[in-house]
Amino acid sequence: MAGTAGPKRQDTRKYFENLDGAGKCIAVLTSGGDAQGMNAAVRAVVRMGIYVGAKVYFIHEGYQGMVDGGDNIIEATWESVSSMLQVGGTVIGSARCKEFRTHEGRLKAALNLVKHSITNLCVIGGDGSLTGANLFREEWSGLLNELVEQGLVSEEEVRSNSELHIVGMVGSIDNDFCGTDMTIGTDSALHRIIEVVDAIMTTAQSHQRTFVLEVMGRHCGYLAMVSALACGADWVFIPEMPPEDDWEDVMCQKLSENRAERKRLNIIIVAEGAIDCHNKPITCDYIKDLVVRRLGFDTRVTILGHVQRGGTPSAFDRILASRMGVEAVLALLEASDSDNTPACVVSLVGNQAVRLPLMECVQMTQEVQKAMDEKKFEDAVRLRGRYFTQVSVYVDKLVIYVTTDFHPQSSFNVAVLNVGAPAAGMNGAVRSAVRVGITEGHKMFAVNDGFEGFYKGQIKEIKWGDVGGWTGQGGSLLGTKRTLPGAHLDKIAEQMRIYNINALLVIGGFEAYVGLLELSTARDKYNEFCVPMVMVPATVSNNIPGSDLSIGSDTALNAITDTCDRIKQSASGTKRRVFIIETMGGYCGYLATVGGLAAGADTVYIYEEPFDIRDLQANVEHLTQKMKTSIQRGLVLRNENCNENFNTDFIYQLYSEEGQGVFDCRKNILGHMQQGGAPSPFDRNFGTKVAAKAIQWVTKTLKESFKGGRVFTNSPDTACLLGMRRRAMVFQPVSQLRDETDFVHRIPKEQWWLKLRPLMKILAKYKTSYDVSDSGQLEHVTQIRPRETKTSADI
């Protein structure tokens, strides 16, 4: 594969080449309920294990297969995990095993592992599966002694298998495991839910119906909570936040008010484990009967059931599972027989993979249920972690307990506009900003067509009901253009004077960032710009400095991944075919790289990693060797501006010529389909939370800068960009980000995702260096949450 991932910093980086897997045996199993993305995790474990020289084994049917042994434990090959990435469920099977819960069952399992010299176990499952693995590890020495006494293993076998190392990955669609922001399968389950809700909303609107939808979540309300935010539901019920005694009256009043404002449908989301404050279950049928009896609305119930577990894994789950799988193998390689390394679980915190002690996470997860049993519901929400807590706050503001008849009033006017190219999720961000702004007491104004509409005076007040149903809409309903404000500062200042705009929220891409820079620079000349200004990144290219992620990029990734899946499937009959696919992104290779990781690409060409004709020739040779195996297809992604000479046609013609007699080629330019479509659940949720956080910052800054009867502030920290940096959401002055920006190519000078490129190459069987500087630190659950500061705020 072309080039390297940037200059090596010998003093600070650590590379995994020092970790040798030769002579080690790793086994991977999936246990408990299945979850989309488990196969991506299995694939990553197998390929990373083989890459470092270890033997890797599948254990089919979970712990049952470990107990039964025989053909359930088989050695994996590189080719055996091909075509797994896009398959839902788990292809190696999962089963709930009563026998493993007994000492005799674990003794059989130990014997089967020893016979295969397996001393490294990667378990993908929920808290029950991981607890079982930890118990197995703690008993390991005793189990080996019993096997010796029974004459089933030799003393030599005991010595060579004296320690069992365990690493867990959480596969659970409920996202009910403490210590990680997201579990494998959660995002895909949200995709299934949102697909159903979007479909139901069209029929509900036609007939003015109320729909009550039950989603999974017997003990955890995450799916219900996030899907309610993502679809703009009218009400949501979850186990951790039971409603007050008068909830029936309050809910019916809200539904009635919504209909009075000519809203033609109502959506109520119910987690299957929903309860009231007396621990009494709240069922869909009870809610339906209540609405029919009190309001007379035509009401239907839909129970989604196991649809949520099925289907293709989302791009997010494939990337998450691939990162976790590689991290799990690294953790096993670094575990030492002498230091009694505790069993760990690989988790996601913010945008970073971390390792946490397995039992700390399990114990905190069990504490949640204990708190709920004791009716300490606030403690239960807090114990779920910062991610769950923050989402619950926005649900409180945007779904539950919000009525349209009363809001505190302030004297502040806040304007919202979209700038740059459209990105899926922009509308959800605008909706969130408007409604949170209204609950904060502000008068909200919408600016149509970006800065161009601003200087032309296309400004109007926007109210609560005006943004109803916006979360599921793609594109930009406000209208957006790439026009920069620099040439129109006089007219924009005049419009801010006319409408008495006291604060500005800009949602958009690189033009929004440059525009905010221009406005903040002009503060010396125009007092009108001496107001709080904040930008929220929204662009499919994900090329904004100061933020690891942008609204819209996840939807684009899913479009790329879905298309690549179909293209790969089309080669299943023809064989020996290579596809060259061009992605968007300008000069930023994020979509190509991360899309390639999610789709299982063989090669990805990007601007940030220069390549020449020798690299292209090496890639062709790599595909030629691949065609000699049982995997007779290839996938090559090319960022649209990766090289002005080696364009898509050139690469297609080169591969066609050099591959003659070995493979044939096809090309596909994805184009603007990456920018369109309904926003993904992640983009809806991310946009909602980030915009709400931005408005809360605006409120706080307005209060601090209101003096002498007017708002005035010109300090750099009041013209900010709100972005995700590793583990936290951070407000950063745009003036400080100037030095981090390559303005010629419209990209940040340093980009976190470049660290994923070696991982992608390894999984495609290329020899490369992989920087593991961020790996290897076993943290503790209580230490992974950064405290919120003046400049840093968690999602």
TrEMBL record:
Pathway: Carbohydrate degradation; glycolysis; D-glyceraldehyde 3-phosphate and glycerone phosphate from D-glucose: step 3/4. This is ATP-dependent 6-phosphofructokinase. Belongs to the phosphofructokinase type A (PFKA) family. ATP-dependent PFK group I subfamily. Eukaryotic two domain clade "E" sub-subfamily. Residues 1-400 are annotated as: N-terminal catalytic PFK domain 1. It catalyses: beta-D-fructose 6-phosphate + ATP = beta-D-fructose 1,6-bisphosphate + ADP + H(+). Residues 413-795 are annotated as: C-terminal regulatory PFK domain 2. ATP binds at residues 33, 96-97, 126-129. It comes from Gouania willdenowi (Blunt-snouted clingfish). Homo- and heterotetramers.
